[in-house]
Design brief:
Largest sheet: 5 strands, antiparallel
Helix content: 55-70%
Structural class: alpha+beta
Number of helices: 14
Shape: elongated
Distance between the termini: 51 Å
Order of helices and strands: HHHHHHEEEEHEHHHHHHH
Strand order of the largest sheet: 4-3-2-1-5
Number of strands: 5
Organism: Amycolatopsis acidicola
Protein name: DUF1841 family protein
Number of domains: 3
């Protein structure tokens, strides 16, 4: 099952009256709940709705200007669709304040004799019973499949994660099939197995934080899968044990750089090399508090992209950059016990990316 397009995402010109725009949006929202009986469909619909009306960058304003008025509008409507919206938001809203406000409003409607939706008891009864993770040998890509259930009815939550956070996240009723496919792919570069829910929750929450940070830095980007999925993801996170606490390594950049040059006797120890090594270490701490010093193709790609964007590379420093990147790959690959084939692949991909950087600099010409 994949999220359904609700037809509310296109940017429209702001009408003269904000009230009329809100009223139309609220009417559209209520209409979506007419005749919806499957609890997963209700979750998809409500999560999509909340993704449009609620922003983690300004949750108080989202509640005050959009969601509280929506709840009042749904109550005033006194329809089955309005009551369904209230029950759904009470279960899935991203903050306790919103859930409680929707719950109180729904209870007043219930006291007036509104009939409960067929899914009302089930929507808050979700359990998360386990998680299977597939990860590549470098740690650049992970797939988490959470096993979930409501009574005897099972489903799954799938999260695909890379260096840029959540690449995709969705609900499915084919979780067993997906897990079987992940297990079949297991081999020299991919591993698959059960992990504790506390660990899985920490991984997912960290990925979500990356998405939110990127969204704040680049608010015009519209390919983030998290907003429309956030509510149903958070509902499952609330059903899991607390995330494992991460003991972050203190960012001893100078110490790591010293250790790196001591281990790599063939790396030229000059100002450029020291700068590139320090930048590589700093990026690691910024990207991954669990494994800040790991070596991977994705980490090298992100590092070189940052240097290019910041204009920190010129052709005269390419030899130093190449020595640092390849030296780092050898050193950290050995420290982390990468299999021989993986270590060789890392060096091959690093060489290819360095060649692409050199080609780009040559094409751009002198700065």
């Amino acid at each position: 099952m994949s999220p359904v397009s609700r037809g509310r995402k296109s940017k429209k010109k702001k009408p003269q009256s904000l009230d009329s725009e809100l009223r139309a949006a609220f009417d559209d929202a209520l209409a979506e709940y007419e005749g919806v009986t499957d609890v997963l469909d209700v979750e998809l619909l409500t999560s999509d709705l909340l993704g449009e009306f609620w922003s983690p960058r300004d949750p108080e304003r989202s509640a005050r200007e959009l969601l509280f008025p929506l709840l009042r509008y749904a109550a005033k409507d006194q329809s089955a669709a309005g009551f369904a919206l209230l029950r759904a938001v009470a279960a899935l809203a991203p903050t306790e304040e919103l859930r409680e406000r929707a719950r109180e409003t729904a209870e007043r409607q219930s006291a007036l004799g509104m009939r409960e939706p067929s899914w009302a008891a089930a929507i808050e009864a979700v359990e998360v019973t386990g998680c299977v993770r597939q990860t590549d040998v470098f740690g650049d890509h992970e797939v988490l499949v959470f096993r979930c259930r409501r009574g005897e009815t099972r489903h799954g939550l799938v999260a695909e994660i890379d260096l840029h956070g959540l690449d995709d996240v969705y609900l499915t009723v084919e979780e067993d099939k997906i897990i079987n496919e992940l297990e079949k792919d297991e081999g020299e570069f991919l591993s698959c197995g059960e992990i504790p829910l506390a660990e899985a929750r920490g991984i997912l929450e960290a990925a979500m934080a990356v998405n939110d940070n990127l969204a704040e830095a680049e608010p015009d980007e519209d390919d983030d899968p998290l907003p429309e999925a956030r509510a149903y993801v958070l509902a499952r996170l609330r059903a899991m044990p607390p995330a494992e606490s991460v003991v972050s390594e203190e960012a001893d950049v100078d110490g790591v750089v010293q250790e790196f040059f001591a281990a790599g006797k063939d790396i030229p120890d000059n100002e450029d090399s020291r700068y590139f090594a320090a930048a590589l270490v700093e990026l690691g701490y910024a990207l991954d508090e669990r494994r800040p010093l790991r070596a991977s193709p994705g980490r090298v790609e992100a590092y070189l992209a940052d240097l290019l964007v910041e204009g920190e590379i010129d052709e005269s420093a390419l030899d130093s950059l190449r020595a640092v990147v390849l030296g780092w790959a050898r050193w950290r690959g050995a420290e982390e016990g990468l299999p021989t084939a993986a270590a060789e692949l890392l060096l091959e991909e690093a060489e290819a990316m360095l060649a692409a950087v050199a080609e780009e600099l040559a094409y751009a010409g002198p700065r």
